[in-house]
Every structure is written in C-alpha cells, then in structure tokens.
Write a structure and sequence with these properties.
The complex is a heterodimer. By secondary structure, chain A is an alpha/beta fold. Chain A has 14 helices and 23 strands. Chain A folds into two domains: 269 residues, Aldehyde Dehydrogenase, Chain A, domain 1 (3-Layer(aba) Sandwich), CATH 3.40.605; 189 residues, Aldehyde Dehydrogenase, Chain A, domain 2 (3-Layer(aba) Sandwich), CATH 3.40.309. The N and C termini of chain A lie far apart (76 Å). In chain A, 56% of the residues are buried. Chain B has three helices and seven strands, in the order E-H-E-E-E-E-H-E-E-H. In chain B, a hairpin with a 2-residue loop joins strand 4 and strand 5. Chain B is globular, with a radius of gyration of 15 Å. The termini of chain B are far apart. Classes of the chains: A alpha/beta, B alpha/beta. At the A-B interface, helix 7, helix 8 and helix 11 of A face helix 2, strand 6 and strand 7 of B.
C-alpha cells in the first residue's frame, strides 16, 4: 500500500499531546463556553481513555451560533467567488499541512485505522475544499433570450444560513462534504458534529478558525437531542442537511415541513456487492482485486453507509469463491488502529458494538450460517477495554434480517444468484439504494447490472472509492440529494430570475 | 396473546424517568445509517406518526411504532427494548445521559406465531392512546 504516513506507529499518540483538555463551541470566530456551562467527556473507543471535555450545548448555544451566522451572512454572500475560493483553498492547505495530526486525532476518537485516516479521510477532506473552490470559480448563471426585447437572467444566490448535522463514522470527511459546497456557495453554516466524535472538528477549528470571517462557520458541540433538535427545527435556517438514521431523518423532514425549508438526507444503505462467475476465470490480479472488493465490508470496521454488507455470488462458483473470500477475510488484521499495518480498529462506541453483536445473534437464530468471525476480538492489553469485533461472514438468504437491515459493522451476509436478472432482482430487494458493487470481466454484465440496480452509486470493478466530482447519494429509503459533485451546489443555492424588458412600449393591457 | 414489544426492567425504569422529565413520550424503531435499528424515544409532540406506521404496543404507557417496510422483517420477532451504557450520539432523549435504548429481538415460537396470525396484522397509524401519562408533570 502506498501510504502517505511519514510517522512510524510509535510516533502516533493514544492521546495526542497537542489536544487541549477542553473544547468550547466555535461561534462568531471565537471559542465560547456553553451557556449552561456543561461539558461531556469524549473518550476513545480503543481503550476508553478520556481524550477531552467537550461543550455539552443546548438550544441557547444554537441561538448564539445562529445570531453569529446571520450577522455574517450578507457580507459572506457578497464576497467575490474568487475570494471565497481562495479561503477554501487555504483551508485545504491547512488540513494538508497537519495531515498526520488530524489523522491521529480522528483515529483515536473514532477507532478507524490510521492507514485509512492518513490515506483517505484527511486527504479527501482537503481535496473536497479544493474541488468546491474550483467549482465556484467556474460557476455561471444563465441568460435566456425570451424575445428581442425580453431577457431572463438567472443568478445563483446563497440560501443564507444553513444547518448541518454530521455523523460519527467519517467525522471530518462528512463535515468537509457538507461544509465545502455550502461555504463555496456563499452560505453561513451552523454545524453539529456527532457527540461520539467531536475532536477532528475541534482541532480543525483551532487550525482554520481565523481563515474565514467570524460567523461564517459555527460549530456547536453536543448531543442530537439537545443540539440537533433545536437546530433542525429552527425557523432561522434556510436549509438542513442530515446524515444519519431514518427515524431522525423523518423527524427532521417533519420540522422542515413546518418551516418550509429544503433538506438533503443521507440515511443509510444495505449495498449489494455482486460477483459474476467470470471473476474466477483466471486466478490473476483482477481476481485478487475482486477478493479485496469482497473484504472491503470491513473498511472503517463496516461503519459506512455504503458498506458492501450483502455479497451476491453467482451460484456456479459459490463454493470455491467463498473458500478464497473467507480465507481473505480471516487474514484481516484487527487491533491497534495506530499501527499502520492494522486494517480494522474498534467499533465507535459500546452501543454500536452491542448492536452488532445482537445482529450476529439474530443471524444465527434465523439460521444464517457463520463462515468466520462472529464474536468480539481480543487484541490484548489496554485494548481489552476497547470495542473490537472480528470481521464476520454469514451465508444465508436475502429475506433474513441480517440481509435486510443495516448493521453498520464488519458483518457481511452472502447469498447466491443464478443469472443477471436474478442478481438485479436480489440486489434491489432492499429498502435502501445507496451503493452497489458489480464485478465481472464482461462489459455487458457490468453495464446491465449497473443500470438495473436502484442505487445512487454503482461501483464497477471497484468499491469504496470516494473522489470529488463523482455524485454520491441515495435512491429509495437511502435519502435524496447528491453530494461530492458540483451539483450539490444547487442544494445550497436559490435561483434568482430577473426578467428584464428593454422595450419602451406599454404592454397594452390597461 | 404474545406481546410484539416488551422492555427489560432497566428499560422500563429509564422510560419512567424520561416521562417524568419530558412528559408524554413516543418510540419509533429506526433503520439505516449510524444509530439505525435502534429505538428512538421522542417527546410525543415531536414526532408525527404516519398512516402506515405499525403500532407494536406500549412501554410504560408510551406507544411504540415501527415503519411499515421495516416491520416486514420484524413481524416474526418479539422486540425487547433494553438499555446499554455509552450508546452513542442520538436524537433520542435518553442519549445525553450516557445511556441508550437498544433493540434486542427474539424469534416468536411457532405457537406464538399461530396465535398472532389469528389476530391479524397489528394496527397502523396514530392510536388513541391511554390518558394515563397525560397528568405527568413536564419539567423540561
């Protein structure tokens, strides 16, 4: 693996010494203590070590952040796109300059392995700011000639102040996905990170806080029930973006119905990863890549909305494919996520680990066959206090709950399909439609499945790649709106039409 | 008749405390990303029940619903609501206290399924709820 990490494992710290002991909210360009003076302990899922005390905010703090954002909004909206782009590029530079540190913080706060934070989360976050800096420079409105004297000008204007609620699985990257287009488009933002994983935004604001004008970006820390709810239902936001589960998604849309504001929602998935028989025609580099594609369900310990948590394997190769695939999974290195060789760290919280173990029990009860894993992992020492699980492979049928519900953990459920139509039918037999994967040496298989699957992203002979400039978002219960592409800008903009008549003659009606 | 949703003593005690703190409550079983497949507990006025939501039963007088599509996969299981520590961030009311409701499940026995089948499908949409919790003080 080509790794950008320049530090050896021992140079990363279980509690990075540059962290402060306590973080307040970042409002109006300053760190401000929460109104009620309450804090909560943010601890590491590696060993339950306390990392910092974080503001436990309430509705009053959300109001302060909204005050600051509203104060800043007109000036920011009037800031030239070139200047907004310059500042976004500065943010990207700052992230890149501090890549090792931010990656270290993200790893100990979330549990994801350092090889992922160093090579994916942090560099992708920087790139997202650069991408949207470029997009906004290149953006154009439109002019329509209605007739010789009448011209329709279409301007793209910012929404104003927007609310964003970020999940804990990619704390920095999901923030970048939402912040970069919102800021590029000229909006001011109030953002709530997840209370399990606040630290990367804490250190980010220490690094970039003085780049943007005060009030343009405000971060309010705390719990969903105490911060997310007042933010989402506030009549002072012009748009809400949410990534999370379906019931809260529904609740936020209900609030948005009351305040009549648009939303973008990303609500999860149960993505099929489809392997045609021809992947085993040769035991070559491509087949090795396909096996890696299978094992990618363990990427970010399975805590990914697009986790390829269902594998559909063509029945003619099922036994021999599974032999190789299970052997590959059994080799996944679980343990200290600060070790560059580690492929899977601990789940993000005890609750998450318990939920996954409950699903493993349900899978067994339903009659799914356990091929490997199925229990806690024990890396030893201090990590016994952490939330480590074994990568787990079930085989069964697509009607089982482990095939239908998003487990959000390193658990894959495998079944067979007969032919192309069967693959599409089983692939689509799910409430969700966020991601999918298809693997074949035959371009027709790839194209037909790609078009037949009802999902927003179909990885074709690849998986879990998240470049800017490829649209990402869901069909069906997975939500709506497309991020990581310039088209998300439209979700953060209003269209202003000026209809101008250059004739001096009356219309003649009155 | 077998209950479709029950709660452990620990979960019941937490529900009683939350009712005391927030007033009438509602549960809705979530799905999807992050906290998905966990029960969400809201103030009753904060969540609008849809016409197709399936009413599974009540916990300490608080109605428990599940989305129609999700119910398909829960229909053969009894939902057992329990509590775990350090459950993670959530819009659910108990989460700021460092605890989290968790959904455990138990497959109904064939006999239980036979009895449930004779009852027909569970009701959908907003139920006329008991008034027992209406007199609880709202302190928050």
């Amino acid at each position: 693996m080509d790794t950008k990490a320049s530090k050896s494992a021992s140079q990363f710290e279980y509690r990075p010494s540059a962290l402060r002991m306590r973080y307040d909210n970042f409002i109006g360009g300053k760190w401000i203590a929460p109104v009620k003076g309450r804090y909560f302990a943010d601890s590491s899922p590696l060993n339950q070590m306390e990392l910092a005390q974080i503001a436990r905010s309430s509705a009053e703090d959300v109001e302060l952040a909204l005050d600051a954002a509203h104060k800043a909004r007109h000036r920011w909206a009037d800031t030239a796109p070139a200047e907004r782009a310059r500042l976004l590029n500065k943010i990207a530079d700052k992230i890149e300059e501090n890549l090792q540190f931010i990656a270290n913080v993200e790893t100990v706060d979330n549990g994801k392995p350092i090889r992922e934070t160093v090579n994916a989360d942090v560099p992708l976050a920087a790139d997202h700011f650069r991408y949207f800096a470029g997009c906004i420079r290149a953006e154009e409105g439109a002019i329509s000639e209605i007739d010789r004297d009448t011209i329709a000008y279409h301007f793209k204007e910012p929404m104003g102040v927007v609310g964003q609620i970020i999940p804990w699985n990619f704390p920095l990257l999901m923030a970048a996905w939402k912040l970069a287009p919102a800021l590029a488009a000229g909006n001011c933002v109030v953002i709530k990170p997840a209370s399990d994983t606040p630290l990367s935004l804490c250190v980010l604001m220490d690094l970039i806080g003085d780049i943007l004008p005060p009030g343009v970006l405000n971060v309010v820390f705390g719990h969903g029930a105490e911060v997310g709810t007042p933010l989402a239902r506030s009549p002072r936001i012009a748009k809400i973006a949410f990534t999370g589960e379906t019931t809260t998604g529904r609740q936020i849309m209900q609030y948005a119905a009351e305040t009549i504001i648009p939303q973008t929602m990303e609500l999860g998935g149960k993505s099929p990863n489809i392997f045609f028989a021809d992947v085993m025609d040769k035991d070559d580099e491509f087949f090795d890549k396909a096996l890696e594609g299978f094992a990618l369900f363990a990427f970010n310990k399975g805590e990914v909305c697009t986790c390829p948590s269902r594998a559909l394997v063509q029945e003619s190769i099922f036994d021999k494919f599974m032999e190789r695939a299970v052997a590959r999974v059994a080799k996944i290195k679980v343990g200290d996520p600060l070790d560059l060789a580690t492929q899977m760290g601990p789940q993000c919280s005890r609750g998450q680990m318990e939920k996954i173990l409950e699903y493993i029990r349900i899978g067994k009860d339903e009659g799914a066959k356990l091929a490997t894993g199925g229990d806690r992992a024990h890396p030893g020492g201090d990590f016994e206090k952490g939330f480590f699980l074994q990568p787990t492979v079930f085989t069964g049928n697509n009607k089982m709950r482990v095939f239908q519900e998003e487990i959000f953990g390193p658990v894959i459920s495998v079944t067979t399909f007969k032919d192309l139509d069967d693959a599409i039918a089983i692939g689509n037999d799910t409430l969700y439609g966020l991601g999918a994967g298809v693997w074949s040496r035959d371009a027709n298989n790839l194209y037909r499945v790609g078009r037949g699957i009802e999902a927003g992203r179909v990885w074709t002979n690849c998986y879990h790649v998240y470049p800017a400039h490829a649209a990402f978002g869901g069909y069906k219960h997975s939500g709506f709106g497309r991020e990581t592409h310039k088209m998300i800008l439209e979700h953060y903009q209003q269209t202003k039409n000026m209809l101008v008549n250059y004739s001096t003659k009356a219309q003649g009606f009155f | 008749m077998p209950e479709r949703v029950i709660a452990t003593e620990k979960a019941k005690a937490l529900v009683r405390w939350l009712k005391d703190e927030f007033g009438p409550l509602i549960f809705h079983q979530s799905g999807g990303c992050c906290e998905g497949t966990a029960p969400m507990c809201f103030k009753r006025s904060d969540f609008r029940v849809g016409a197709s939501d399936v009413f599974l039963g009540s916990i300490e007088g608080c109605p428990f619903y599940i989305g129609a599509a999700t119910f398909q996969y829960f229909s053969s299981m009894q939902v057992v609501i329990d509590v775990t520590k350090d459950g993670g961030d959530s819009f659910s009311l108990e989460a700021p206290g460092g605890v989290r409701f968790i959904t455990r499940s138990r497959l109904f026995t064939d006999e239980e399924i036979r009895i449930l089948d004779t009852q027909g499908p569970p009701p959908t949409g907003l139920m006329p709820h008991s008034t027992s919790d209406r007199h609880q003080g709202v302190r928050s």
